[in-house]
Design brief:
It contains nine helices and nine strands. The protein is an alpha+beta fold and 251 residues long. The termini are far apart.
């Protein structure tokens, strides 16, 4: 099979002219089958996503066969056309906000965050502080949250942007979903090369459109950075997340 792309937990290959297969890496068996069910839930909520055809096993690896979306990643478009970075960032914020709608059948974001933070090796005082922030910021309202939305996870099709990689979708707080995206894209100081202007505008516009003051935004970033430490990062990546979680590295 022709290789197309890869992430931490899976690889994507050509299945046929109109479909791709996403195969779990060894050690992550079953994630793609779970994601197929998640996609059904988010499609039922009215969100456009790649069509799921079937779940499969290929050479001992679990996988899901998906519609092949035609178009570049948003990140690719921004890098190829830097002059479009600001407008693309504004459009990305609107697209992200448009995903947030009522949903049923997904795990609770705040419960997941609390469990992840508890499992980290952060200093006890920092962990207590971050958990207190989480409890303070949680307003109890829940909508569909992508949980992993970046410019790499948006395909610019002829009919409009489509979000992919729905494995971490949950029912949660939209401001927290936005903060998760900021942590993923390296805000405030380590944006992916070629996306610096995009990330800067995304952060400013996203906070403005959601009416988030600095205290709330910084609080959610600390929570999301702390929870991300539960994903097995080491070295400089872990150091950056720990600094964000501790409030030592904020804009």
């Amino acid at each position: 099979m022709e290789f197309l792309a890869e992430g931490r937990t899976a690889e994507v290959f050509v299945w046929d002219d109109e479909r791709v297969v996403k195969l779990d890496r060894v050690g992550w068996t079953g994630l793609s089958h779970y994601e197929s069910g998640v996609i059904e839930v988010i499609v039922a909520a009215g969100v456009s996503a790649p069509k799921v055809f079937e779940t499969v096993w290929v050479e001992g690896r679990s996988g899901v066969v998906l519609e092949r979306l035609e178009g570049p990643q948003l990140a690719e478009r921004v890098r190829a056309h830097p002059a479009l970075a600001e407008q693309e960032a504004v459009d990305f914020v609107e697209f992200h906000m448009g995903l947030h709608r009522p949903v049923e059948g997904l795990p609770d974001q705040v419960d997941l965050l609390r469990a992840s933070i508890e499992r980290t090796e952060l200093a006890s005082a920092v962990k207590r502080e971050v958990l207190a922030i989480l409890n303070d910021l949680d307003d109890g309202k829940r909508v569909l949250c992508h949980g992993d939305l970046t410019a790499e996870n948006v395909i610019m099709t002829a009919s409009g942007p489509v979000a992919i990689d729905w494995l971490t979708a949950n029912a949660g707080v939209p401001a927290a979903d936005f903060a998760r995206s900021l942590v993923l894209v390296g805000w405030p100081d380590q944006a992916s090369r070629g996306l610096e202007r995009f990330v800067t505008v995304m952060a400013k516009q996203g906070a403005r459109r959601r009416d988030l003051d600095q205290r709330v935004l910084t609080g959610w970033v600390r929570v999301m950075a702390a929870a991300r430490l539960d994903e097995g990062f080491t070295g400089p990546s872990a150091d950056r997340l720990a600094a964000l979680a501790s409030g030592e590295n904020s804009a």
